[in-house]
Amino acid sequence: MSKYPPVYYSDYLQIDKLLSSQKLKSNEYGHKAHDEMLFIIVHQVYELWFKQILHEIDSVNTMFRDDIVDEKSIGTAVSRLHRITEIQKLMVEQLRVIETMTPLDFLEFRDFLIPASGFQSFQFRLIENKLGLSDNKRIQYNNVDYLNTLEEPHKKLIFDTVKDPSLFELLNKWLERTPFINTKKFNFWQSYKQTVENMLEKDRNIILENKTLSETKREFQLKNIDITLENFDALFDEKKYDQLLNEGKRHLSNKAMLAAIFINLYRDEPILHMPYNLLNYLVEIDELFTEWRYRHALMVHRMIGAKIGTGGSSGHQYLMQTVEKHRVFVDLFNLPTYLIPRSELPKLPVELVRELGFNHSKA
Ligand code: HEM
Fold first, then answer.
1. Is the residue at 234 inside a domain?
2. DSSP 3-state assignment of 144?
3. Ligand 1 environment, Cβ below 6 A
């Protein structure tokens, strides 16, 4: 016998509340629209998943708020970020269910919803903010600030989040605290820099020797190599790097970026497995949100064509712009440009390998 009072399944899960939360506008207006039930349920299921994602992000952000993040926390954070990615995969798949509704079925009740729209999903905005999508990166449509479409209690929730450090900011600080960056005895960066420059030089020769390229294409590709080299040099020149930061071409600090490169290069060291997984899941979360945005934008195009959204935006066009721009961990995506083959990695001194703990020093 359990020492706790018995629990009834429907009470515990508040099933009656859940099942009485589908109020069809088409019923209210006496204009039957069968598919409105699906429309409501799909959105509600998404909002539940958003709630779970926020629960995970909040816990990870709390772990990273400390000056010292211990090894156990990293493992837990990684498994929670992994969980988010599994939910996101469902979120992408779930769009197929709403796609069983045809544009004509949607038109049966679309006008009843104006001006409501997923644009007003405050949980979606909380996720974006807590991950680290900054206001200056947001695409605006018709100069409408998303906050102005929300009611006061939801606005307040958003204001409260903006005050807290986002996962992106916390990651930046955590990376900055990695101890090896300050290692004096080890000339890792020097040997690494030389290897990358040689690799880019090889690429330049491949372009020069490629007879199939037109003159314009060759010039274009050579220019790209120059830009990559310039950006790479900036990693070792604080002033140049700051300029890229100011221009919005970099987001992580110089120190954090070098640490992320180091973790990626030496991810085979057992001690770096977890930090590498952490960075990798952040890339995956960003990628899966981008995938969701893209799939949602396509679904919207299919559903409403070139009409404006119920929230008043340019619909498909606005959504496609967010696919490219509303990304948070872009620097981690760009990082493979500077990766070199394992065989050419500078060997780490034994003391440094020993030093590489998860218990990062205080800033
Ligand atoms: C018939 C199905 C759907 C249509 C036609 C549709 C249409 C749109 C449109 C046009 C927008 C842009 C804002 C506006 O002008 O309204 C939008 C935004 C949004 N929708 Fe949907 N949507 C649909 C289903 C869904 C579903 C199932 C979700 C899941 C929660 C969702 C979540 C969102 C979110 C979060 C935004 C804001 C995106 C952003 O600003 O980056 N939508 N939707």
1. no
2. strand
3. 42-43, 46, 98, 106, 117-119, 121, 124, 296, 300, 303-304, 309-313, 315, 318-319, 322
